[in-house]
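[Automated response] Your request has been received and processed.

Submitted sequence:
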Amino acid sequence: MASPLNFRTYCASLLLAALFSIAATASDTAPEQGRVIYSAEQFSVLPHRDRIAPENAMLNERLATLLPQVMADAELDMWLVINREYVEDPVFFSLVPQPAFAARRTTMLIFNRLADGQVEKLSVNTYPFGDPYESVWSGGDLDEQWQALATLIADKDPQRIGINVSKHWPEADGLTKSMHERLLEVLPTHYQQRLQPAENLVVRWLETRTEAELGAYAHAVSLARGVIAEAFSSRVITPGATTTDDMAWYLRQRFEDLGLPVWFMPYVTFQRQGESCTDEQPFCSVNEGVIQRGDVLHTDVGICYLKMCTDTQEMAYVLKLDETEAPQGLQDALRTGNQWQDILTAEFKTGRTGNEILAATIAASQAAGITSSTYTHPIGFFGHAPGPTIGMWDNQGPTPINGDWPLFANTAYAIEGNIKQALPEWDNQTIQIMLEQSAYFDGKRVIYLAGRQTKWHLVR
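Generated structure:
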């Protein structure tokens, strides 16, 4: 029989072995919300004509239910959105029914909050929109139009009038200097003094997602991921011949063929064994040119569909002739990337600021031994939308103003960032895993709109 000391040592070794076994089992468990999408052909795309009805239905829902809420929260009695053709206010297209291609001539939208909390939706412009807007004035004389606006404001007599001017939020800074000056010219002094920035209202309006939008949003993200899967395959890539530029233009053309506008030019880069990557480099996947077997590929794409914009980054591996799977080191690195995602999204708590979420994520990642960088941003009507900034790729500290914005429920984010990890198969050369997936925060947890990448795309 073993001595008491040896027995305790033996028991301790068994406990450690059990713990390691549990840890190994947990690490072998597939990350939640992983989803493989093989092609955009799995998902329908509405013709442009057929997009009008659902887009306008979602707009009418927002105007009827969301706008009264965010106007009340911002404590505004009236909101003015005044813009001209060619210099549309950033918020304009989120407010008008389709098909609308411009703020023709000068377009004035007036939102007036009534005593019962409902909001009148009024227009003073040459070409009336019809429902859901009531036309107060239409015609061709610009001086008469401005006077009609001043008369309307006097009739409604709002105490707090929001206008789109902002030092820090470009989405809330759509009122041009000349239009602002003209507004002041036609308003009596006591109404001029009631004007105030509507930035809180604009941010809440743009960042909040409705249930109907989420259904469309998930479909849009699925299309983006589907096209990436098509590109990261042997149907598109011939190792030793296809270039990263070929792939970027394939992505662009494929989206064009589907009738899906991109909001930035897609790009593709690679990492290759023998090319150094250090912790000081913000990005290691910067190589462009002919794709070879053994390369690690990365892409970044963004499209818009039914007014919802996506932002997606995924990774692929080009198999060597004797390989059927990505090297274990790459699989482990992708798993670490998923772990970083989980650390970040676990820190999403209603009311926390973007800066607070960033600091907590960095602390938890460091405690887990993960080398990571977090630069997550809101998405919605814009790919880079207003809301809480959670880190910047060139600033892993607090971001003033935008990073101080609190997290609200019913908002969407591009869960974006990267991890770095030694790759044994490449003589412990550092590999960088860059991930970005569109997700939704319901107030309690983060839900990926079309799943997330947890398996490597393989080019055979």
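Summary generated for your ticket: Residues 48-73 form the longest helix (26 residues). DSSP finds ten helices and 17 strands in the chain.
If you did not submit this request, please reply to this message.
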